[in-house]
Amino acid sequence: MEEVKPSDIKPNPSNPRIIRDDKFAKLVKSLKDFPEMANVRPVVVNMDGVILGGNMRYRAMIEAGWKKIPIERVDWPEDKQREFVIKDNVSGGEWDWDVLANEWDAGQLDEWGVDVPQTFADANEEIDVDGLDSEMCIKLNYSEDDYWKVKEALSKIAATPEAAVYQLLKL
Questions:
Q1: What does the pLDDT profile of the chain (171 residues) look like in tens digits?
Q2: Domains of the chain
């Protein structure tokens, strides 16, 4: 790893990712609050100084006033560079909202850049079971295409979606 002036490297004009204003502000704040993080996750550049990974971090570092940018320089063929640009930006997983809700503070997660759903922020509030109706509702979110697929699959199992879920869960 080395450190260079921001003007020594350049954003990738083919960068496939963007960052919106609110997320960008969180990234800038994150880098200001925890600059050591950049040393273990440097901006990746090719031998010409074009950023392959970390375009948004680079922009945020400049916004945060950094005079030196930690980089990792790689000497890869063009096809490997293009592959890296995409693979570096592919999200490799999903949040386990149960773990986050039970073991992490929603305010901190939001501050750190996680898009915390409002229901998650309220998850640790105690539920007044005496004030609830006799029927409860579980809401699942699907794309329109997936909704119709799920609805059709459930209709093949039982007469109602509720009965199908009971049968699937062996309740």
A1: 999 999 999 998 887 777 888 888 888 998 999 999 888 999 999 999 999 999 999 999 999 999 999 999 999 999 898 888 888 877 656 667 777 777 777 777 777 777 777 665 555 555 566 666 666 677 777 778 888 888 888 888 888 888 888 888 887
A2: 2-87 (3.90.1530.10), 134-171 (no CATH)
Closest among 87, 2, 16, 86 to 45, alpha carbons compared: 2
- In which residue are the tokens 């109602």 written? 160
Question: Measuring CA to CA, which residue among 162, 151, 5, 148 is closest to residue 70?
Answer: 5
CA distances from 9 to 44, 47, 53, 126 (A): 10, 10, 12, 51
**CA–CA gap between residue 144 and residue 163 (Å, rounded):** 22
